[in-house]
UniProtKB/TrEMBL annotation:
Annotated GO MF terms: mating-type factor pheromone receptor activity
Name of the protein this chain belongs to: EamA domain-containing protein
PANTHER family: SUGAR PHOSPHATE TRANSPORTER DOMAIN-CONTAINING PROTEIN
Domain of life: Eukaryota
Residues spanning the signal sequence: none
Any single Gene Ontology cellular-component annotation: membrane
Regions that span the bilayer: 60-79, 91-112, 138-159, 171-194, 214-235, 255-282, 294-311, 320-338, 350-368, 389-408, 456-477, 483-504
Pfam families in the record: STE2
Keywords, in A-Z order: Membrane, Transmembrane, Transmembrane helix
Amino acid sequence: MDHNTQHFNRPEYIEIPVPPSKGFNPHTNPAFFIYPDGSNMTFWFGQIDDFRRDQLFTNTIFSIQIGAALVILCVMFCVTHADKRKTIVYLLNVSNLFVVIIRGVFFVHYFMGGLARTYTTFTWDTSDVQQSEKATSIVSSICSLILMIGTQISLLLQVRICYALNPRSKTAILVTCGSISGIATTAYLLLGAYTIQLREKPPDMKFMKWAKPVVNALVALSIVSFSGIFSWRMFQSVRNRRRMGFTGIGSLESLLASGFQCLVFPGLVTTALTVAGSTWYIAVNLTTPSDLTAIYNCSAFFAYAFSIPLLKERAQVEKTISVVIAIAGVLVVAYGDGADDGSTSNGEKARLGGNVLIGIGSVLYGLYEVLYKKLLCPPSGASPGRSVVFSNTVCACIGAFTLLFLWIPLPLLHWSGWEIFELPTGKTAKLLGISIAANATFSGSFLILISLTGPVLSSVAALLTIFLVAITDRILFGRELTSAAILGGLLIIAAFALLSWATWKEMIEENEKDTIDSISDVGDHDD
């Protein structure tokens, strides 16, 4: 027997935990179990580890598919909202996306259910699996088949439309793509039929080892072929428009621009916001609360600093003074009462690292506000109502980007053991729900304020929450409202009032300038 194999005289090897043994790791070495009747079984936790990794990876893939399908559906509905006539390709693509969502939900349930645990890890015997979970696997497989056929038909129709103006190449392209699509679909159906006829018997692993990669390669080849043809036709369309002298963008380019505007720009802004927010949660364990509050709220200064080169704003004395007064108010609130002795549990080096980290977060938060104003706000001539609607739409796009991409590290952190995530229950869940609702209201209102005014005024206005928190603590929890909190709050209020006046004055001047320019244009036209 291998010296790395641990022996246990245990009649029940699943219910009774394996006792620890020096130098023995059940995740890398097998455990040899001897039963009273003389039978034995070798078991190691590496099987469960492999399964959990596969389970996490599979659920991540299908969750991303669900989120991507929802975003694409929203973009398609927005782009074609004004189009009264829906083409066959459009309806087929919408149907395919709905099938992707339904299939993803079923597969996530399947891979989290008992059928996956029993069927994949230990045995092909599914006698203990509930009938509902078996039905789930059947329905999800049917959805996959429908999606496969629907996707191939949709791609064929798109290729046909792309080459409608060139009959000679259209025939050759359609025959080639039709052949690839037919072979891929047939191979997919044959593999599915082979799997179904197995029922609860184990498959021929030598056959499955090469059959599944071949089928997947054929399906991928069909999609890559159609995508390449469609992209080439798109390039030809843009090139022909340029040769004919059209300077505007066509419908195809408009669709690409809409997708870029709806996902990439919010993704850039969301990344800056997420990194900035993450630095706060990391630094809170490294530095003191006073340093954390003072440094992080200096984002108002960085918002003002970034707005000058990026938004081409003029450096005004009123704005500069108001930002300085606001930051001074924050410093008074943070350090005025002298309650914080500046010590941390991790020492001065950790405090320095935390301060540097929160400083980076403060810079990124100021950059986030300015980038939002520059990239994701409507033109200056838009009405306030349209600006509000546009801000809510952008806020939804930021949420969609977060849903699609920014949750991906969470299961990896959980699986690695670096950060364990658990669903909240009881009072914690209630408080988190209230916090989420309040934060959503704040975020939506904050983006609207940036759109209507600017990042500097919005950033200083957000500092008012420091004074409001002190008042709320006094009302709800009876905590003492210190003189430092009152003085700092009054300084922040004064800064906000001064900045509001400066912003209002600037807006009045711009309106007067626009009025004079429009009158001049009318006079020049009459002449």
